[in-house]
Amino acid sequence: MTTTDTQAVPLTAGVIGLGMIGGGVAVSLARRGRTPVVFDVRPEAADGLAGVEGCVGSVGELAGVADVVIVAVVDADQARAVVAELAPAARPAQVVVLASTVAVPVVHELAATCAEHGVSLLDCGVTPGDRAADNGLVAILGGDDDAVARARPVLEDFAKKVVHCGPLGAGMATKIARNVVTYGTWRAVHEATVLARSAGVDPTRLFEVIDTADPEGSTLLAWARRRVETEGTPGFAALSAQVATLLHKDLAAAQELAAEAGVALPLVDVTQARGDDTLGPV
Q1: Annotated catalytic residue 175
Q2: 232: left (phi over 0), alpha (psi -120 to 50) or beta
Q3: pLDDT digit string, tens, across residues 26-40
Q4: Cβ neighbours of residue 63 under 8 Å, at least 6 residues apart?
Q5: Is the pTM of this model over 0.90?
Q6: What is the pLDDT of residues 78-95, one digit of tens each?
Q7: Among 126, 148, 224, 227, which residue has the fewest nearby CB atoms (within 10 Å)?
Q8: Mind listing the domains of the chain with CATH numbers?
Q9: Which of 160, 161, 175, 249 is catalytic?
Q10: Whole-number Cα distances in Å, 8 to 2, 3, 4, 73, 264
Q11: Quick check: 174 and 109 in contact, CB under 8 A?
Q12: Do 82 and 110 contact (CB within 8 A), yes or no?
């Protein structure tokens, strides 16, 4: 078990909200030997969580004993309610780690409430949610360097990777951007599947091709990485123009096939219309 740099006393972790994320975080902490104090409005939510003891009676009770508190509730209103009860009862120098995905202005609102009581807040997007119980999360942090340092031993006990993205709000912004990639990719795959099916192709054949040709999704970030590496160099404009020619040619073929089959591909249409912008400087 990790300890603070200044004391030999282990940090006590608390988890509020024992759904898929919070329950998984609690299990991962317990597996590392840092058994958390937990609370959920449904006391039975702790039942069956390996190594996790039963819920304490209230948010305030948890706040009084935990040094680092992970808040993993569903939405902004639940987060506000938790922080309103948590902050006044908090231990000195407590760090609240907000693992709920909320709008960035809400992060600043909750941080202000915490600051009134001497509590630090970190925004902490997490992904992928289905790996929470396997120490498989990436913790995507925004917040003060000192607060990150204080919370890091607990964070590293439930996350496989801790990425400090910048000041308050940066973690949540990064998580939201990550979600855009996730849902946008789902839409892209949906349109590709519709297109393949319209041409009489079994979608599983498309999936087989993608899995084989693009292991671990390397193509997904290929252009973004190339742009970061070459943007601003003399050859970037020429490279972008070359790729744009291919993009427009290939998407025109997709649009022609879709028109023949009478299927709509709105993401393809937008990408075709905005292709030069997509490939150009950010």
Answers
A1: yes
A2: left
A3: 999 999 999 999 999
A4: 14, 69, 85, 86, 87, 89, 90, 91, 94
A5: no
A6: 999 999 999 999 999 999
A7: 224
A8: 13-168 (3.40.50.720), 175-279 (1.10.1040.10)
A9: 175
A10: 9, 6, 7, 31, 62
A11: no
A12: no
